[in-house]
Prior knowledge:
This protein has helices spanning 11-15, 25-35, 81-88, 100-110, 120-126, 135-143, 163-189, 197-203, 227-247, 251-254, 257-266, 289-300, 321-338, 348-356, 367-381, and strands spanning 4-5, 40-48, 56-63, 68-71, 93-96, 117-119, 385-390, 393-398. The chain has 401 residues and is an alpha/beta fold. The chain folds into 3 domains: 4-209, Ribonuclease H-like superfamily/Ribonuclease H (Nucleotidyltransferase, domain 5), CATH 3.30.420; 213-306, DNA polymerase, domain 1, CATH 1.10.150.80; 315-398, DNA polymerase, domain 1. It has a 6-stranded mixed beta sheet, sandwiched between helices. Strands 7-8 form a two-stranded antiparallel sheet. 30% of the residues are buried.
Amino acid sequence: xxxxxxxxxxxxxxxxxxxxxxxxxxxxxxxxxxxxxxxxxxxxxxxxxxxxxxxxxxxxxxxxxxxxxxxxxxxxxxxxxxxxxxxxxxxxxxxxxxxxxxxxxxxxxxxxxxxxxxxxxxxxxxxxxxxxxxxxxxxxxxxxxxxxxxxxxxxxxxxxxxxxxxxxxxxxxxxxxxxxxxxxxxxxxxxxxxxxxxxxxxxxxxxxxxxxxxxxxxxxxxxxxxxxxxxxxxxxxxxxxxxxxxxxxxxxxxxxxxxxxxxxxxxxxxxxxxxxxxxxxxxxxxxxxxxxxxxxxxxxxxxxxxxxxxxxxxxxxxxxxxxxxxxxxxxxxxxxxxxxxxxxxxxxxxxxxxxxxxxxxxxxxxxxxxxxxxxxxxxxxxxxxxxxxxxxxxxxxxxxx
Length: 401
């Protein structure tokens, strides 16, 4: 039976195709030899992570724009090292869509990232197709094709996979291989390829996909926490992250977020106090009482210099709402004019920083972003230009007063 699909056809034609994933080292070797001469490879993965810290890789789909294959990493005795070498080949561009979780998988299994990387979701922002556009919407917008969603919630770890499931998975790379040349050509024509450089620099940094235990607390949603409690939370979150990584379990399977925050705020001193902590595993008799008590005791023994600075709040520390609104309108005007996604230039937090500080350390004041938005934002704040409405459209006018 065939192990590859040459191209996507209509649903009736596809239903007659019979495909199997690659499960042997000989078959993998043959397709890798074929792909070594490719200019680019569209890559996607199917995975599960509900029960693990690291994503469990279940299927790898690859297309060179001619053939598309599915590789079964769960197959017995399949050696994936030749595939990892292919992913490291610097002469072949690896194309993903919203590839953050794919990158996390490859980094964990390969010990490095595929290179070089091209992410069509990032490119879509420069093409004016919106922030974090979904794959199905991108395919519809650029190829006028509706993606089959019927197998979206498949348990990809179960074997055997049906023919329909494999075809569904292959569609992701078949259409991705069609999207990539179109998007690349569009950005080259509009001379915007360099606009992606900074975004791809982040995508190619392994640190983007690894949560260091010392910074794990930053993923928690907290408000108005006093320095002493925040210091406890920082150490508790670091301990939980290390436990989750070592045991390959989801963070909340160790201790839930709200429980961790409650522990930091309540600071239980004795075993009986743990009975009052919300959702603490096992209550006062739980096996985590001892290690967490040790962490809290160690934090209590730290010098005052270890305390994080108190968060400064209040009207004096926030830019005027009117300045923020003006910058939002200006950003919308600029991004509409250039047909790009606002988030590519500035986030809401970065706008707030820029509203309060002309020298804020934000992306909008560097490189091409400064050329299209940053300088205008500073001129608007300084009263050199103004926003006006003409025929229902925002326009900029020079302030001659």
